[in-house]
Amino acid sequence: MNGKRQVILVTDGDRIAKKAVEAATLRIGGRCISKSAGNPTPMSGQSIVKLIKETPYDPVVVMVDDRGHMGTGNGEMVIRDIARCPEVEILGVIAVASNTEGVEGTRIDSAITRDGNIIAGTVDKYGNKTEGNRINGDTVDILESIEVPVIIGIGDPGKMKGKDCCDKGAPIITKAMKEIIKRSSMH
Fold first, then answer.
1. pLDDT tens digits for 58-92?
2. Which residue from 179, 131, 130 is spatially nearest to 155, judged by alpha carbons?
């Protein structure tokens, strides 16, 4: 380890995503910054960085959300601020697919379908396999302009026909977090 705080970002923060992220973070033994949840992200990047530095152990999971805002919204500004902090290392990003139009999307390394399969392609909002290697979402366009070692795409928590249900331990987002850790310096 390099002494930096190890962070996983999730590009969703609504009420359902918050529950899924909290459940998944518990399953991987991490720390979730629940205050980062909101639609859009209710805090500044600097406030979230302060909380990241105060957490007792890694990985730290942060939710960022633009609430469908085209262009650079608060969630993307938070990503930028976290990426610029020299005391933080972004292990990876879970890029949540949405139906947002007018976005560039971002290239991803892999995706996890709603059935829990890791694929080389992408997924849609419902966790169905799609063609290509770019995922569309409202808080992902900034990712290609910062250094992110791995980006895993998933469908929208709560929109994958119950396959990601918190009662089941939020298996899709948990698998995405485990995959990021597996590919990172923490593994």
1. 999 999 998 876 678 889 999 999 999 999 999 99
2. 130
Please give the model's pTM, rounded to 2 decimal places.
Answer: 0.95
Inter-residue contact 85 to 146 (CB < 8 Å) = no
Q: What are the beta bridge partners of residue 118?
A: 112
Q: Of 167, 171, 169, 102, give the one whose Cα is nearest residue 137.
A: 102
Match 């949540």 to its residue by tokens. Answer: 96
Which strands sit side by side in the sheet containing 151-154, from one edge to the other?
Answer: 31-33, 60-63, 5-10, 88-96, 151-154, 110-112, 118-119
Q: Output phi, psi for 73, to 5 deg.
A: -95, -175
Distance between alpha carbon 41 and the CA centroid of its chain, in Å? 13
How many whole angstroms separate alpha carbon 125 and alpha carbon 144? 20
Could you read off the pLDDT of 92-103 as tens digits, one per residue? 999 999 877 777
The domain ranges of the chain are 5-182
Which tokens hold the place of 112?
């996890």
Output DSSP code: residue 169: T
Beta strands in 19-178 (DSSP E): 31-33, 60-63, 88-96, 106-107, 110-112, 118-119, 122-123, 129-130, 134-135, 151-154
